[in-house]
Fold this sequence. Notes:
Blueprint: E1 4-6, E2 10-17, E3 20-28, E4 34-41, H1 48-66, H2 69-77, H3 80-103, H4 111-135, H5 145-168
Antiparallel strand pairs: 1-2, 2-3, 3-4
Amino acid sequence: MTKEKNSPRQKTEVHRINGYLKEVVTFFDSTGKPISNIINPLMVELKPRDVLQLFVGAFLIAAPLCFTEEVWNLSVSLKNMKVYYLALVSFVVTTLFIYFNFYRSRLRGNIINFIKRIIATYVITASSVVLLLFLIDKFPIREAPIITIKRVIIISFPALFGAVLSDYLK
């Protein structure tokens, strides 16, 4: 796969190297001879490594929060509307972070991958929170479903940022 973007002083191509997309930028001198290359990773595809990094990042932030009684009490006392706003803010900020750090100049042709990365980030983060809460017996979905959902949203809020940051720091 090769996409090219050219100018008199540089040539940009996209190649698959060892299974990963890379942007290869070749710089030319005034005579047209190549003088150097820069290889940048393109993080527009969601690979198994990315999934693992999302899980670990979410888990690192969610783990200490799942064990705090303050979060459990907050899920009982916080109004439903505030929790929904919290979810909306996390969605907007996470989507913008993913767009600006992974897809800003490469969204064309990668919209499906962009949507997959957003969905994967949320599913993996929520799954890690649910797993932790379930393991410590703080996931009472049958007895108190609203409180349980609020608890997952509240803990997922910071865990989402941990997930996208660990995905970004390759």
